[in-house]
Amino acid sequence: MNPLKSPRSAARLNPKLDAKLIAYMAAGAGVLAAAQPAQAKVVYTPVNVTIGENSQYLLDLNQDGVNDFSFSHFAYGNWDHFYAAGLGANHIFGNGSASALRFGVPIGPNGHFSHFGLMAKSGAISGSIKTFGKWLNVQNHYLGLQFSINGQTHYGWARLTVTSGIAGTLTGYAYETIPNKRILAGQTSGPEVAGAVGLEERLTPYSQKPTLGLLSRGADALAIWRREEDSMEL
Length: 234
Hints:
By secondary structure, this protein is an alpha+beta fold. It has a domain at 42-189. Helices cover 16% and strands 37% of the residues. It is built from four helices and 13 strands. Strands 1-12-11-10-5-7 form a six-stranded antiparallel sheet, with no helix packed on it. It is elongated and about 55 Å long. The protein starts with 14 loop residues before the first helix and ends in an 11-residue tail after the last helix. The relative contact order is 0.17.
């Protein structure tokens, strides 16, 4: 290095150009941030609540202090009833009656939802006991839930067991934090993966045939083929 020459100083760009470059960089960073998908998160709460005769349980699904669903067990005349209902603008999975879904069934925008539905019913007619409802003698099945958070639709599930005596026990519930994103019955964490579906469900043939899109996703996607939801009801 020639000692007579002073060190070269950094070249300075036009201040206006500097400002434009900073603006472009900031805009680019914003686009990259916006392009990142929102991380799905399932919030799961285990409970053990028995809804006895002539009682009601109010479920605050996202624990914001507002009750979202109710489970009612009441006697009317000679009949014993067990009902589920969505409070306000919320709904339950089913078309006129509450569907008892198996583990792994998708609950989302394509489902059939009603404001309320019968789960089980028992009564005496002409000296004999008659029973009705998809939840009779059902253990650890799932009720699909559709509810609102700040005006946006979310999906979840409640796990229940209902005995022949129309006694219902709630053993857990969960919901998806991303609006309009489906959740699998029994899913307790996100994102949705093949491991969220039980071995029994993977071995049960699905009614839906695999598409090219599913085949391209590999074994994980094939493990969670969506079966027709009505075929999963009892």
